[in-house]
Amino acid sequence: MSLAFTAAWDTTEGTRWAQELFTRTFGETADRVAFAPGRVNLIGEHTDYNAGLCLPIALPHRTYVALSMRSDNRIRLVSEHGELWEGAVEDINPAMPGSWISYAAGPAWALDIQRGYEAAIVSCVPLGAGLSSSAALECAMACAINPNVIQEDPSAVVTACIRAENEIAHAPTGGMDQTVSVFGEEGAAVALDFDSHTHTLIPADFAAAGLQLVVINTRAKHSLSDGQYGNRRQECEKAANLLGYSSLREANVEDIARLSGVHARRARHVITENARVTRAIGALSTGDFHSLGKLFNESHVSLRDDFEVSCPELDCVVETARQHGALGARMTGGGFGGSAIALVPLDKVDALAAGVRAAAEARGFPTPELLLAHASCGAQVVGEEASTSK
Question: 13, 86, 166, 177: which could form a disulfide with 9 (CB 3.0–4.6 Å)?
């Protein structure tokens, strides 16, 4: 199966790639390396900014950052794609032009780091796939720029990275991605409650049940800063306002009849999705994976019809995955492209992979990229070496 799926790097491999890029670019060894994972959300989509519930896992696919501090205010950043950016601490601000630098340097701004630094960034989290490559970059940078904070106050990493994404990158996301990138743990999903701002670990060992969680990146264009994501957020806020609530978390099914049109549809998705998350937590806790699969299916229909964030590429791979033996499948992430997930018996994984690729190609869609996912650990500083500071 390894040839058909995009592999995750282990810690040794990712650290080596980051250090090698740093040395090639800056001529010395970085002081430290940190990593943070991408995420895939099992269920609970577009609920985070509605004070709702969601159930993501941290992926084994991570972004690694090798970093050294400087004694002046200069910043030099290099990506694995050969992009080199040079600037100063004061260049990082909410008015700066949007680019990958917003995500890479935004966390230092949010943590109020006034010294300069050099960093090399490598990643095996697919870009534009709805798997939180931006949050992985932000959280890895935050840990590398301030290695003590992840141990002493991991919530501060989450807060800083949300600020960076909202205020520097101007992507109005709700915080799920950064939270699971920091608090993810091996073998556990992270049940997040954005009303009480708490998280609970839920055992999620699919392999023990003879199952595999397959992530299917449609390669359809995916962006959270093109206005559509923000529009959905505004529609939900308007629906809550019309109901007289501070958020749709306070609403119930009976409230939907008090709304009409787009606001009724958006509210119905959020209300029923929160209920599906609660049921999914129960299904995971008791090992009822058939029920979990049905909840995946229901969630996709709701996202497609009520929230209107699916697309033909996502609908194609979801339907094909079900036809090839998945217990359930759904789009995951912000939508408008990106990825789907499928919960699949181990003996049907290869057939499903071949089936979704063939179905996409038959419809003229890009060939999907597939990843094998399991619940993995959150952000860490993986090594510190003697500094050769400037």
Answer: 13
Residue 227, pLDDT score: 77
Cα 336 versus chain centre, distance: 15
Tokens standing for residue 15: 């650290």
Name the 3-class secondary structure at 120.
Answer: strand
> For 245-249, which contacts have Cβ atoms below 8 Å and span 24 or more sequence positions?
246/51, 247/50, 247/51, 247/52, 247/195, 248/50, 248/51, 248/52, 249/50, 249/51, 249/52, 249/194, 249/195, 249/274
Give residue-wise pLDDT tens across range 285-329: 999 999 999 999 999 999 999 999 999 999 999 999 999 999 999
CA distance 374 to 61: 10
Strand partners, 203: 188
Where does 151-285 show beta strands of DSSP type E?
188-193, 198-203, 211-217
Cα distance between residue 167 and residue 171, in whole Å: 8
Type of residue at 213: L
**Is residue 144 a contact partner of residue 34, using CB atoms and an 8 Å limit?**
yes
DSSP for 20-66, written as a single string: HHHHHHHSS--SEEEEEEEEEEEE-TT-GGGT-EEEEEEEEEEEEEE
Secondary element (H or E) of residue 195: none
Active site residues: 177
The whole-model pTM stands at 0.91
pLDDT value at position 383? 62
Cα-to-chain-centroid distance, residue 117? 26
